[in-house]
Specification:
single chain, 2 domains, three-stranded antiparallel sheet, two-stranded antiparallel sheet, about 10% strand, elongated
Length: about 240
């Protein structure tokens, strides 16, 4: 009986020591080592790829934002603030979500099939409300209208796909150079800037393919709008 109690106590003691050692190694030392390496070698990525303006964090280079006017009485969705470059549509976020000024509740896709609202593979002139066809056609109409200014008319054929379709998460931080360039004349007119200077902003913020072959050329909308704000401040 005594031997049994002694063996049990010895096993419990060994198990407790193993628990304490493993807790120290895996719960304290390992996280500290990983955190130290991340902060030393990849500080920007480890901290969320933060973007700062005027000394404050205003967002992340990995998460898109919306640039809208305040919601007016009777509106379900706010109008875009057209003095800023606009990102991709965020139809998958839902009406009860917030993604303005880096406040985020949820993300998601529309989950609508590619043929949603289509007839024989083609979107009709008046597709049913709530279908992907209806969203895409409404978005294209808005892009053409919003970006057509005096001396510059946008044609429906000029509108790139990323201007009228949302990404899988609804939070894509970048747009194609084609969509950014499409907005140049409107942004220049709204801010009283020369078109050439706004075009140069887009050119300077166009990123090439990762490692030269991964993905597509892109323009981070938040970074571009921060540069735009700095440019307008000099006027």
């Amino acid at each position: 009986m005594n031997n049994s109690a002694t063996n049990t106590a010895r096993l419990l003691g060994a198990g407790l020591r193993a628990l304490l050692v493993l807790t120290l190694v895996t719960g304290v030392l390992y996280p500290l080592a990983v955190t130290g390496i991340a902060q030393g070698l990849f500080r920007d990525k480890a901290n969320g790829s933060e973007i700062k303006a005027d000394g404050k964090v205003v967002g992340s280079s990995l998460i898109g934002q919306q640039y809208n006017l305040p919601l007016q009485k009777g509106q379900e969705t706010p109008d875009p603030d057209l003095k800023w470059f606009q990102g991709r549509p965020a139809n998958g976020l839902g009406s009860n979500s917030i993604n303005t000024q880096y406040k985020l509740i949820l993300s998601g896709a529309t989950n609508l099939a590619a043929d949603s609202g289509a007839v024989r593979g083609t979107c009709p002139a008046q597709p049913a409300d709530g279908t992907l066809c209806a969203q895409v056609l409404a978005a294209k109409t808005a892009v053409v209208k919003d970006n057509s200014v005096a001396g510059y008319t946008v044609k429906p054929s000029d509108v790139p796909a990323d201007a009228i379709t949302s990404s899988g998460s609804g939070l894509d931080p970048a747009v194609s150079p084609a969509y950014a360039e499409l907005q140049v004349h409107r942004v220049a007119a709204r801010n009283g800037l020369p078109v050439e200077r706004v075009e140069k902003l887009v050119e300077d913020h166009t990123q090439s393919r990762t490692l030269g072959f991964i993905g597509e050329p892109r323009v981070n909308v938040l970074e571009l709008n921060i540069a735009l704000k700095a440019l307008t401040a000099k006027q």
